[in-house]
């Protein structure tokens, strides 16, 4: 759940211009964070900004973004003391089963002896990769085939946390044009950190195994609403239209053109400044309750460059255009990542690959076949809060459009096919989560209390309730094209020797 897009560089200049022209009484408004003030000053100068720009600044902005310093030194976003708990933090079994999934793919793809890459985007504290590597160590032939482990992480603080876990705090580091290298605690497997996946070369002879867990949900989204098209304003040089003659009541009548529904167009949802609440005054008493939203969504008064292009990029969106008030969310970055994964696995016109190899596993919450709507949420201290309050201190996420990811992957490469999405509960149960939990509970030295914790944890991961993780979270796999002859483990298939 870690975006790796670069923050906008235009806000500091806009903020400087705004600061010189703000009236004194407006500057007295108290802002919850330095980032909130910077956003306010920029919007005051340039006008409302796209939702994606707001999300990008809140999550990875250079002035106190959520994953780039706003949380504060010594505070962890993850875990019971942070803002949310992810599946790897709930149970070690989660990462172990993902490790087993990639081992099964390695076997099914002929047990390559070299050139294997493990790539994780948005690796959090490194817990998932740690559990995967520990599991892979039980299969020495695969472990020795791993050339590099790439950790794609934008946050300097999280990179340090990952290094301490995977390599040890005293592990040496070297720099290259790809990123920072350190030897892992798992034998000779090197770990490489990079801020963007684009820094990792796409090589035709590699076997990339890619995992993205709670990553796509934090990528910036654009939101659009269908509305009647704006009437073009008459030019000043256009001569006035002469009055129409009065109709002859005896002549045949034609339909009134005014009864024809106007054409529809997409308008973009923009982020604007919310009116100040009494608590935002410098003289208002301080409250420990949730701060009021400082920003709000507004509908653009006309089309924008994004609304003219993005909703036209797929027939899924185009067919909704003529529905008045239809809402859609689109994540261009998600499609770019999916296309990158597909090119690494199956090749592309820009990166030909004689034999498709590798696999990608995407685990996140979102929709399987519908377009996400009104899904933006803020999370702080394990509670849902307004995504427009305390920018930089609130985690932002939105539902993942798995259909759009599958579409982008298959369009990017003829050498891949997509399986799923399937419910996380189905995937984990097929992978053997119950059996692994029972084995852990019976291990020597496990107390009855610890055994109960193990049971509680795995059942939480497969909970099929309305908001249960087993139902809300879904799993999608991108594999080398094989005309559907081989289904992967966890998606109805079994291990198949190549």
Automatic annotation (TrEMBL):
Its EC number is 2.1.1.320. Keywords: Methyltransferase, Mitochondrion, Transferase. It is an enzyme of class 2 (transferase). Its main location: mitochondrion. SUPFAM superfamilies: S-adenosyl-L-methionine-dependent methyltransferases. Residues 237-246 have a biased composition (Pro residues). Gene3D superfamilies: 3.40.50.12710. PANTHER family: PROTEIN ARGININE METHYLTRANSFERASE NDUFAF7, MITOCHONDRIAL. This is Protein arginine methyltransferase NDUFAF7.
């Amino acid at each position: 759940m870690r975006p790796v897009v670069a923050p906008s560089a235009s806000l500091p200049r806009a903020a400087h211009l705004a600061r010189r022209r703000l009236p004194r009484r407006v500057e007295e408004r108290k802002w919850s964070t330095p980032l909130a003030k910077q956003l306010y000053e920029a919007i005051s100068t340039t006008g409302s900004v796209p939702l994606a720009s707001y999300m990008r600044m809140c999550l990875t902005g250079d002035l106190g973004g959520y994953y780039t310093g706003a949380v504060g030194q010594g505070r962890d976003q993850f875990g019971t003391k942070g803002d949310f708990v992810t599946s790897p933090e709930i149970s070690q079994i989660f990462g172990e089963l993902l490790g087993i999934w990639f081992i099964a793919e390695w076997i099914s793809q002929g047990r390559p002896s070299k050139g294997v890459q493990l790539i994780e985007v948005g690796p959090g504290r490194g817990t998932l990769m740690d559990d995967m590597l520990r599991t892979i160590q039980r299969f020495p032939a695969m472990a020795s085939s791993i050339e590099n482990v790439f950790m794609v992480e934008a946050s300097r603080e999280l990179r340090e946390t990952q290094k301490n876990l995977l390599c040890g705090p005293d592990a040496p580091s070297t720099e290259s044009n790809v990123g920072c290298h350190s030897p892992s605690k798992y034998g000779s497997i090197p770990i490489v950190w990079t801020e963007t996946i684009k820094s990792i070369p796409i090589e035709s002879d590699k076997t990339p195994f890619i995992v993205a867990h709670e990553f796509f949900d934090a990528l910036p989204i654009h939101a659009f609403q269908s509305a009647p098209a704006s009437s073009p304003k008459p030019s000043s040089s256009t001569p006035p239209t002469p009055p129409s003659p009065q109709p002859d009541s005896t002549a045949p009548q034609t339909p009134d053109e005014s009864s024809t529904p106007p054409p529809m167009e997409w308008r973009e949802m923009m982020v604007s400044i919310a009116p100040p609440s009494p608590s935002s005054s410098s003289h208002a008493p301080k409250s420990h309750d949730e701060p009021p939203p400082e920003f709000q969504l507004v509908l653009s008064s006309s089309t924008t460059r994004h609304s003219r292009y993005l909703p036209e990029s797929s027939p899924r969106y185009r067919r909704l255009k003529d529905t008045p008030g239809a809402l859609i969310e689109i994540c261009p970055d998600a499609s770019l990542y999916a296309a990158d994964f597909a090119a690494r696995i199956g090749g592309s016109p820009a990166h030909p690959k004689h034999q498709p190899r590798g696999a990608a596993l995407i685990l996140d919450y979102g929709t399987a076949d519908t377009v996400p709507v009104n899904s933006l949420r803020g999370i702080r201290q394990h509670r849902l809060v307004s995504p427009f309050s305390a920018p930089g201190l609130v985690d932002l996420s939105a539902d993942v459009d798995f259909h759009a990811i599958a579409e982008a992957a298959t369009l990017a490469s003829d050498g891949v096919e997509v399986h799923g999405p399937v419910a996380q509960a189905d995937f984990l149960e097929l992978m053997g989560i119950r059996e692994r939990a029972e084995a852990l509970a019976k291990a020597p030295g496990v107390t009855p209390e610890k055994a109960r914790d193990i049971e509680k944890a795995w059942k939480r991961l497969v909970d099929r309730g309305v908001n249960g993780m087993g139902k809300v979270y879904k799993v999608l796999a991108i594999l080398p094209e094989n005309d559907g002859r081989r289904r992967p483990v966890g998606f109805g298939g079994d291990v198949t020797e190549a």
